[in-house]
Write a structure and sequence with these properties.
single chain; about 200 residues; alpha/beta; Rossmann fold
Length: about 200
């Protein structure tokens, strides 16, 4: 979700209805996020990475909370969002990832569909805050220029965003993370060991 400084003044009821709740117009629903959470949890188990807690940044309707409860029972979930509507309706904490961090490091960070709403300075600050709070895996999904040209369903995707290249993000992520592919990154401080073909060359 976008911070208060973004061009969008408010992520209101209409926004969440269109992009998250209406099956005819939403980008993803519970089934898609459920499959994604299952894959992330399975890979964490395969790599021997703990999953005791998760921070969901821009948590929106809380689809990850429901999916993680199924895939990792007992996992402590924290959802944050900059939208007062989302926080009130779905029970998240009101936080702006471009200006907020805490000392705790999470086993899993989720940042899905957030960074494209931030300008360059705020997005870079957000990546730094994610790096500081990462104790294990990060799942990152962000719309890029190439996505809009070649992949995204433009009738379902919000394109009133700040489009950058994938390289812009990778350049800033590599300080704190090992790039594993498929949107997954592992905090360098986690000490994970990966075969050469399991991660992207730097």
């Amino acid at each position: 979700m976008a911070p208060p400084s973004s061009p969008r003044n408010q992520f209101d009821e209409a926004y969440f209805q269109r992009y998250y709740e209406d099956p005819g117009t939403r980008v993803q629903g519970p089934e898609e996020v459920g499959r994604l959470a299952r894959a992330v949890c399975a890979l964490a188990a395969y790599w021997g990475l703990p999953l005791e807690d998760a921070l969901d940044v821009g948590a929106g309707p809380g689809l990850w909370r429901e999916a993680l409860q199924r895939e990792a029972p007992g996992l402590r979930y924290t959802g944050v969002d900059v939208s007062p509507v989302a926080c009130k309706k779905y029970g998240h904490l009101l936080r702006d990832i471009s200006s907020w961090r805490e000392r705790h490091r999470y086993d899993l960070l989720i940042c899905q569909g957030v960074l494209q709403y931030l300008d360059d300075e705020a997005a870079e600050a957000a990546l730094g805050n994610l790096g500081a709070m990462a104790g294990g895996l990060l799942y990152l999904e962000v719309l890029t220029r190439r996505d809009v040209r070649e992949v995204a369903d433009l009738e379902r995707s919000d394109t009133q965003v700040k489009l950058r290249t994938g390289a812009w993000y990778r350049q800033r992520l590599k300080t704190d993370f090992v790039m594993l592919g498929c949107g997954l990154f592992c905090a360098r401080r986690a000490g994970g060991l990966f075969y050469e073909m399991e991660h992207l060359a730097e």
